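worker-3 :: picked AP-2 complex subunit alpha
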Amino acid sequence: MAVNMRGLTQFIADIRGARVRELEEKRINKEMANIRKKFKDGNLDGYQKKKYVAKIVFTYILGYKVDVGHMEAVNLISSSKYSEKQIGYLAVTLLMHENSDFLRLVVNSIRKDLDSNVEVDNCLALHAIANVGGSEMAEALVEDVHRLLISPTSPNFVRKKAALTLLRLYRKHPDVIPAAEWALRIVSLMDDPDLGVVVCVTALVMSLAQDHLDAFAVCYMKAVDRLHRLVVDHEYSATYAYYKVPTPWLQVKLLRLLQYYPPSEDPTLRSALHQVLQTIMNNSAEPSRNVQHNNAQHAVLFEAIGLAIHLDASSPLVTTAAVLLARFISSKETNVRYLGLDTMAYLAARADSLDPIKKHQDIIILSLRDKDISVRRRALDLLYSMCDTENSEAIVGELLRYLPVADYALREEMVLKIAILTEKYANSYRWYVDTILRLISAAGDHVGDEVWYRVVQIVTNTEDLQQYTSRVVMEYLKGPTAHESLVKVAGYVLGEYGHLIANEEGYSPIEQFQALHSKSQFCLAPTRSLLLSTYIKWANVFPEIRTQLLNVFERYRHVLDPELQQRACEFYALASRPDDDELLPSVCEEMPPFSARASTLLGRLNQKHGDSGDKRTWVHGGKDLNLTRAPTKRQTLGPTASASTIDATADQSQSELDALSSLAGLEISSSTPQSAAPNNGPRLATGPNVERWFEKLVCTAEGVLYEDVQIQIGIKSRYQGHIGQLAVYIGNKMTAPLTSFTATLHVQDPDALSVTFAKIPPSQVAPRQQSQQLLHVECKKAFTSPLVISISFLAGSHQSVSIQLPIVLTKFFESIHLDRPEFFERWKLIGGPPREAQTVFPVALDSAGELDLQRYREALAGSKLSVLEGVDPNPNNLVAAGVLHMSDDGKVGCLLRLEPNKEAKLCRLTIRSTSEDVAAEVQKLIQKPLRSTAS
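worker-3 :: tokens ->
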């Protein structure tokens, strides 16, 4: 650029040639005066504006204040020449802050460049939005950036920059991006064939998903699918192989993204993930001599170990990972040691057993003395997480020995962790007192008030500790020095419980007073105030030293500090009263036990480990602490990682079945009433054809479920007992492929109905071709809501359709045959309501005006019930029977009577079952095909 502008080149040469700062400033002032004159005169062409603005930008980069050229920079942005537009954008991004009034003038120009078909114009505009974009600019242009990201005509380079621009805007102004509305469209780009686009989009999804887990839940399947294709199937170009490691930066992002979500229960996803993680660990078993290859491989490996721990901390994969981590924490490379210790701390925070980690306790303790402070910090975190009742004394003792030589940046955190571990895993009261007082004595100024507050609370609430603690603090006071925090503890403890040791040798009242008062001269005013409170309590219990105490109060009555002076005056008046006065004993009563409260030490420590921009899925401190950190992390995703909310079922209630015990031949059992879950699923496709197709497939095994101008969805199914298989055929009717194809299942009650894909759905459907998805279905309990499948794809624009799958309760029936006595015996035993459901609807007549019983028989047979001939005395009545199979609730029998009345033109349907829920649901399902038969 400077080569084409000789004036700029000469100006830069003059600045560089200035030998002293005064000459440099003189040259710059001269140039700025000339530029102001030129701008004031006007009539400058594009080249001259570009040259002068470039000089202004160079001056600003040198660190000089600039107050000219802003308007000219705005004008250059509107230029049609790239070189002029580039200088204009450069000046805007450098010279203007996000609240500058000039930015309002460039919004339209930036929008025009975003709409341009020229790639470089798009990129310049995106750079400006990302680097400057304030809230006003973000609100005005975020829709345009999103459109540029999702547009199929946008070049890959532009889409990458658009994704990163949205990420920058979300981090600065999260409210301007409707993340939930854009979720499906953004996630669909994770299937893009260009891995560069996928990397940028995944970074955006990672940030958005942390705050909108449900809306972005579909990304779980996308991430697993992409990882499987990269690691197992090796679907990537050579361009994205970094030292033979397939796009490690994308693998790391995908593995981290999966850790934001609870583990999926879908066996297909779990199997694919297990294969991916196993492959990554196998590839990293032997280190390479190439440093770059090792770095890339380790980056992926450590994230994979983190995901394996997140999925199941007791799995064989984690056992393999623990062996690898043991090798890494002994590595000669600082980065590898750091990552090994950090990942092992994660394992300690989630594992059920700490035995595999305890084997390497000596190596971890040695890491406390590593030459790198980051490694020392990770070793401290790991020791904190792996501590329990068995090794607490060894770990706390080692931390206390290391404390005097530890870095000042680590000491405050070490003090908090030692105090927490000492309290949490104390084997005896005396060990706790000895350790905590040794800590206070050794740590000095790094002991916060929370530490000695907690000591006071525990000693006050533990009667067995009071005498021993008084004796120990006296020994510390007899030493040549005592830190102020220790003096505070001693002042409180001796004031409350000093009388318990007053009769022992070396701990007499006068000796207690002399030991404590000798340390007061080195303390600040708040500590001296506390000691005055100790003295007034001694004046009550030790009358033999009251004279010495009155002398102290007398001296403090004349100090300048108002708090000390007021206390001294009041205490002097109290101590000077007659011995028989009851005021002093009532004022100086012993402190009552503190109410139960949470330790403030944990709160203080958690403040030091706050979440960063990339939120952690765990905290240091063992499994108990991580169980209560985020309840949503402990829930499991449904079988398909759907976004539906999983509601807990109601408490089970067992009904009385004395009279039904004779129905063993039919194996009828009571069912468990379920609480109705709210329908929070996606919006379903509607229309007369959609309803007709669904009702037809409820009674048949195969057929069309949905069709429009773009796709056709067909169903073919078979059921045996409580297990079923459903083949879903998605046909592409267009001449273009359906890209970023996503199929998501929404199960309203996953505890009652389990549906999973046999394999991860493909991400593309070829033109005029058909894709088959096999679903495994299991009926666990009685359910009322059909499964919903949501299909989304890109076909020019983003399309989405949600429809109900014909998986209903009657699909799990088995037809049985009963004779007349058996049927009516069971019918009477079941009785009426609430185990009976009944409805009336218009009767069906054939073309001759007679009852169309054959169509009724076909409808009942389609519902998998056995029509029993010759059972009902009335030949026009139909009776049927069946058994519902469920894996959890066993088998439930169901009996049916259909009584058509030609004269009344009405038909009565009666269902009886030992489960009232089953009776009501079957009545609702069967009346639909019977009504459609009538119509």
